[in-house]
Design brief:
Blueprint lengths: L13 E9 L2 E9 L5 E4 L6 E3 L4 H8 L5 H4 E5 L5 H8 L7 E3 L5 H5 L5 E5 L3 H10 L4 E4 L4 H14 L3 H22 L9 E8 L6 E4 L5 H8 L3 E2 L11 E3 L1 H7 L3 E5 L5 H9 L2 H4 L2 H4 L3 E3 L14 H12 L9 H13 L3 H7 L12
Parallel strand pairs: 4-5, 4-7, 5-6, 7-8, 9-11, 9-13, 13-14
Antiparallel strand pairs: 1-2, 2-3, 9-10, 10-12
């Protein structure tokens, strides 16, 4: 079953508004409804866009799904998780563009003279309100759940004047969701493995493991893929909840997936397999301690790669029902169709980062 459409209010409302001209061509005014439900009106399509704030790589990757992004993105925020490396692949001029700190103040952003700033919704209070007081339009986006992806892609389609592209992009994710839903239809709880998804961290030199809240895309992926997320009661807050080995052992998961946003999940799994306490866990003994797939970004998170992540995870959780999934073929099509990367570049910059074990169920 497909998700119902969330594309409401993301329309061009003044196609005949000739409020500005550029190169002799009439420019149309437009209005979009952003993730906060606000109507943002622009005198003409934005030509000097800044993407900034925390978690900006998710916005970068979504914006660069649109072919006009390289010539219209003026500046970006510096980012972790090899985000710069990926932007450099899809934007030939990226290295020459201004890079702001994720916590850049409004006056620093304004100094670049953008005609639009794109921010995650939770950046309204730290910086967005001040930007608007300075007369700079701000559009807020979420890109955190499948439903939000449909809505926010439509918003970008309106901003870029490329609604057809937005529909094509959402069509890809919608087909992935439908494919997974069809394959998992009719599963009983007895047929669903008990799944534990853990984020590995060594911040401050201390090793820790965290589980995501029930409403986050990571948890949704497990449920959509035909698994039972067994940790949800322990993650009732607004972010990753730290759990200890005693709790991990008590859950007695059938499968454990390891996420590592700042290093190799494969290396972490190898370390844990060699640890006597971890090697005693049933999931580890049966070969079900699994590094979550990823290239420059882990595929579990609400980056544009989440469609790949969902197919990959479904193939591991319900291998018999997803035997027809060729993850490598999905990778070639995704990065080729939507980012315009050729096969040689995909092999060199994307596939080379995927461990062979991550591509097999």
């Amino acid at each position: 079953m497909r998700l119902r459409s969330w594309v409401l209010g993301i329309t061009i409302v003044a196609l005949t508004g000739l409020s500005a001209c550029q190169g002799g061509t009439p420019m149309r005014s437009l209005s979009v409804e952003d993730a906060l439900g606000r109507t943002v009106s622009l005198a003409s399509p934005p030509q000097r866009i800044i993407i900034t704030g925390r978690a900006n790589f998710m916005l970068n990757d979504a914006v660069y799904l649109f072919p006009d992004a390289p010539e219209r993105v003026l500046a970006l925020a510096q980012a972790n998780q090899a985000a710069s490396a990926f932007v450099n692949l899809v934007d030939p001029e990226a290295e020459a563009k201004t890079r702001l700190m994720p916590d850049a103040a409004a006056d620093e952003i304004a100094a670049a003279q953008p005609d639009l700033v794109l921010l995650k919704s939770y950046m309204q209070d730290p910086v967005g309100d001040t930007l608007e007081q300075l007369g700079i339009p701000v559009v807020y986006l979420d890109f955190e759940t499948p439903e939000q992806y449909e809505r926010d892609l439509a918003t970008l389609g309106a901003l870029f004047g490329d609604e057809d592209r937005a529909e094509k992009l959402w069509g890809y994710y919608d087909r992935v969701l439908e494919r997974v839903a069809d394959a998992t239809e009719g599963l009983t709880d007895a047929q669903k493995p008990r799944v534990l998804l853990l984020q590995y961290s060594e911040k401050g030199g201390e090793v820790a493991f965290g589980v995501p809240p029930a409403g986050w895309i990571q948890t949704q992926m497990v449920t959509l893929s035909g698994g039972i997320p067994i940790w949800t009661e322990a993650a009732s807050g607004g972010g990753w909840a730290t759990v200890n080995l005693e709790q991990i052992a008590a859950w007695d998961a059938d499968q454990i997936y390891i996420i590592n946003y700042f290093g190799s999940a494969v290396d972490v799994v190898e370390q844990l397999q060699a640890d006597p306490q971890w090697s005693a866990l049933p999931a580890v003994r049966t070969g079900q301690l699994i590094p979550f797939a990823g290239d420059l970004h882990s595929w579990d998170q609400p980056d544009t790669r989440w469609g790949l992540g969902l197919l990959w995870l479904a193939q591991h959780i319900q291998p018999e029902r997803f035997a027809d999934v060729d993850v490598l073929d999905e990778v070639y099509r995704f990065f080729g169709d939507f980012y315009g990367l050729d096969r040689a570049t995909i092999d060199r910059e994307i596939v080379s980062l995927l461990n062979a074990s991550q591509l097999q169920s």
